[in-house]
Amino acid sequence: MKGYFISKYRDLERFERSLVGFPLNISEAIISSDVLEVRTEDVVYNFLCKSAKAKYSQSQRYVRRAVVSQLASHLWFCYMNVETL
Fold it and tell me: Residue 76: which of 84, 26, 55, 57 has the closest Cα?
């Protein structure tokens, strides 16, 4: 099932709005895929932040930070813009 999502939604920028509502395990499978198509790694980071923000309220900001930190292990920081870092 995850393979379907990875192949269909590998263009993260194109499908970002619909992907934000997906469960985190699906989001993690997509961002950890080797076939992900993005201009820069900043797109992936921003997607992670938006997904966590959509799933967890402001009162759960510590959970939100923990989720982003955990999923950040899939980011390629060397391909991010300095401004984002």
Answer: 84
Backbone angles phi, psi at 50, to 5 degrees: -65, -40
Predicted TM-score (pTM) above 0.85: no
Whether the CB-CB separation of 54 and 28 falls below 8 Å is answered with no
The per-residue pLDDT for range 3-13, each reduced to its tens digit, is 666 677 778 78
Instruction: Tell me how crowded residue 73 is: count the other CB atoms within 10 A of its CB.
Output: 8
- Rounded to whole angstroms, how far apart are CA atoms 73 and 78? 12
CA distance 57 to 84: 23
Taking every pair of Cα atoms in the chain, the longest distance, rounded to a whole number of angstroms, is 36
